[in-house]
Amino acid sequence: MSAPASTTEERRIVKAAGQIGFYTLLSRITGLFRDIAIGAVFGAGFITDTFFTAFRIPNMLRRIVGEGASAAALVPVITEYREHRTPGETIAMIGKPFAVRNGSDGTFFAARLD
After folding, report:
1. Residue 102: its pLDDT value, please?
2. 1: which DSSP letter?
């Protein structure tokens, strides 16, 4: 007799959560080694501070957009499009966030040229 569907689903969810936790831990450990290497090469001082300051905004944007927020917002919409619309409409919808992002990048960089 097989396990109930809910038990199987719970195991899949626990396994997926464990994988996410493992890779997050692995990412933190490799980040620690990266910081150790940067400290060994540059030392503590102005150059290291400049390096970390230069990456503050891109890292913040990655955290906001890349680490789950956009996936949590887009996956249900993409799923709805795949189920109820044509493949062409789905592809067009998927391209819209990228067009908006590229347009905003162009606006940002154009503003910086003045």
Report:
1. 52
2. -
Query: For 52-106, how does the pLDDT look when each residue is reduced to its tens digit (9 = 90+)?
Result: 888 888 877 777 766 666 667 777 888 888 888 888 888 887 777 666 555 545 4
**DSSP assigned state of 67:** T
Tokens of 61: 């944007």
Q: How far apart are CA 114 and CA 112, in angstroms?
A: 6
Check: CB of residue 24 under 8 Å from CB of residue 14. Answer: no
Instruction: For residue 17, give the DSSP letter.
Output: H
Query: By CB neighbour count within 10 A (0-12 exposed, 13-18 middle, 19+ buried), where does 64 fall?
Result: exposed
**Residues 93 and 84: beta-carbon distance below 8 Å:** no
- Residue 114's alpha-carbon distances to 100, 107, 109, 111, in angstroms, are 22, 11, 9, 6
Q: Is 87 in contact with 93 (CB distance < 8 Å)?
A: no
